[in-house]
Amino acid sequence: MVKGPVMVQTSGKRKAATARAVLSKGQGRIWVNSRPLELVDPPIVRSKISQPLFLLGPRSQSLDVQISVQGGGIMGQASAARTALARGLVVYLKDPALADMFKRYDRTLLVNDSRRKLPKLPQGRGARKRRQKSYR
Structural domains in the chain? Predict the structure, then answer.
């Protein structure tokens, strides 16, 4: 008899990046865009994606995770993958204490970052920049 779900699919977003994570029973392998997590560069991205696994501890050794990420830059993709992974762990393990621990550590582990770029406005090149005034 299987204790938990056989497979869980979750998603995470950050800026323009969207990540989907599929968690299933396995041997502790983590793949990001069809590459092992150990081969993801730079190392700061690798550590950001694996934060939920470090917080979880040895219970993650029996899970296989496949993450696919599209859009955005490398850090936005890392944050989106991290959110998708953390959400998947909470749903797969059905542990409310784990969700509380993730929220106490960093709320963005479970909640998408809703911040977006401001729209460009008149009299300038961007959202904040304006033409200078000359009083001469």
Answer: 7-107 (3.30.230.10)
